[in-house]
Amino acid sequence: MMADSGSEDAAVIGNTDISSAEAENNLRNTMVEKGTSLLKKLEITVSEAEKRTGKNSVNMQETYTVYLIETRPADSGSEAGTPVPDMLWRRYSDFELLRTYLLVTYPYVIIPPLPEKRAEFVWHKLSADNLDPDFVERRRVGLENFLLRVASHPLLSNDKIFFLFLTDEKGWRDAVLETGFQDKVDSRLKSLSASFRVKNPDKRFTALKQYSDELNAVISQLLRVRARVADRLYGVYKVHGNYGRVFSEWSAIEKEMGDGLQSAGHHMDTYAASIDDILEEEEHYADQLKEYLYYTEAVRSVCRKHELLQYEVEMAAQDLAYKKQQREELVTGTVRVFSLKGMTSKLFGQESQEQREQRLAALEQGIQEGEELLKDKNHECQEFVQSAWKDIERFKEQKDRDLREALISYAIMQISMCKKGVQVWSNAKECFNKM
Amino acid sequence: MAVQGSAADLSVPVLDLEEDDDLEVFSKNTSVADGSPLPTSPSSMTNQYHLDREDPEESLEQNPEERERDLFITVDNPESQVTAIETFIMYRVLTRTTRGDFDSSEVEVRRRYQEFSWLRSKLEESHPTLIIPPLPEKFVVKGMVERFSEDFIETRKKALHRFLQKLSVHPVLSHSPHLKAFLTAQDLTPHKKQGPGLLSRMGDTMRSMAQSMRGVRGRAEEFSSLQDYTDRFNSTICSVDRVTQRVIREQKEYLDELRQYSPTYSQWAELEEGLSETLKGVARSLDLIGQETEGQVQELSEVLVPVLHEYVLCADTLKMVLRRRDNIQADFEVKNEALATRKVEQETLQEEVDSLADRLEQANVALRADWRHWRSSLRSDIQTSLLSTAERNVQYYEKCLAIWESFLLSQKVDPAQHQNQEPSS
Fold this sequence. Notes:
Chain A is built from twelve helices and three strands; from the N terminus they run H-H-H-E-E-E-H-H-H-H-H-H-H-H-H. By secondary structure, chain A is mostly helical.
């Protein structure tokens, strides 16, 4: 599915006066247009966030936030008005559980990331507190985005557990635990050692891993720089607020210049105040970058899974080769490969014919099993590579599309900021003219 | 020396401008500074008495810049001079004029800071209640500014230029013989030896300090309000100056961070295929934005800061001028009291009192007139520099706007479209 030329004219970029809420809406619409069967049926939103207190697993009082997931039939554009939606509350840890389930169940899919657990890359004025209302709000948006991403994925959208997550408040948890997905989680140690020891990784995956690492580094760098720039810009704007105060003082002692100074001072106050909205909007852009930053981890995950499978194939092949080697030795009586049995028989004398035949039979059995295993592993690996690569292509197109739109909306934001600047300083100029 | 005709010709103003009627007064005042007795009587002053004329509008229209200027001075070409004892900078002072009392229409001399300082002192002595324009500071205390750094010399040169500019359009000071000597004499040394020396000036300071302790009894309301204004102006202008310095500092720090933006986007572009062009476009745009920002920061330092700085220094001058006027009044009051209480030497005392009364009157008139002149300069200078700053900021944002719009165009997006939704094909 190639990116169609229509994407260049997609909704969000036509309007330079677009707000971040509208941009969010447009993104959602883009996903809906792509149309999975789930999204054709259901409209999904995360509409609210609330604070709750309760006892946690160690019986301590804690405060946490819950999010309201609303689902309603998609074709509710009738004149009858919007029907009452189905609603349920979930907390962040529920989302985490869902995601882990998806990671394990669809290891060849690049699973959409959750919004950050803790505020990162903050510029100093922005709160890093998880209970801060702005943070909660941005998280709400991020969670909705996550659900929509999953809902618009050709494979993930059909998952039953996902559907239950959206519709069954009480029963979902049991259902997900019943799948036994936790048993399928690869141990970290296993996957780490696989990374080191795999001999013939698929070159495409190696390249992808490298790309994802580099992308991660560059987006992190970008987010850090952005935070510092935001900090500084905030300083510039706010300091101009002092002009407001000082011009006001000055206007009190000047007869002719007074009015001009006073009104110019007001414009300086306006200028200083405008930075809050500007940076609030820019936060939205930062969130879009962050999503792809966290996506790189999901990509890495898929690459790791491939390495693991590849490693298992190689191990199976190696094991098989070794067994075959042993059989050959046993048959021909030559010892080419060191084995304890071989050594002991050399030391303690030949084994009996019966023993030999027993061993041979066992080996044959092992070889057969080994060949089955190798076939399975190979098959598993190949299937994985095929499915994964399909999703990777899909992901690449999505990434290019989304990030291009994000960059364009960043430019639009800058234009809006410049327009405000022109306005304010033109007004100030008028005041100075009248001095 | 003076431009006007003989001292007896009182009724004909020399320059065809209302404020300059006061010039008549000063042709006599120079002799006061030299210590010789004042030949006139108080009544002759009433001809030139302009206290009752309250027309600030008119006096504003007589903006120094709008008068017929006949004296043009520039300061440029700083060059360092090395002697056995010291190293210093000489500035070229070029004068062009149509005035008859100048020997030629164009004169060039080289002067050092010390000599500018001499000029200002002489002017202060001769015209104690005039608001003499300030000189740039002798030393720069804050920051490790090298005395001979390019920036420092450039800033000082511009300030010296402003100093002479202001003098050249001043109704009284532009005709000072000291100024003329400064502008024309190839060697100032003989001139430097004239007039009350350092010691006598110190004597004056002691006396005036003693008297300011005593206080001024009958200070008119108008001068009290000038005092009040001066105090408040002083703190206000210092605040404006401080805020501006702060703005510059913040902008510079912003610029430093901004400069890291573009390279990061370029780095990213290298990783990407489809996204590469867009990322490069953003990097390019940010580069251009950085350049524009650099220009904008510079503007503030070059236009607004020097003007604010000058008026910060002026605030001190205003204080001193008001104090000197107060001292002259105190002098008069002391003698006047003596006249009332002492029975002997009545005639001598009466003469002294009369002359002091004259002196006071002249001082007040001079101050008033120069206050108006100064206020008009203030308004003009502040307005011009603030306008320039605002204009520059407007231009800055317009240029940045254009940069981003051009980026959008390169992405085949029409920035002028305002439709919310476009159907994707």
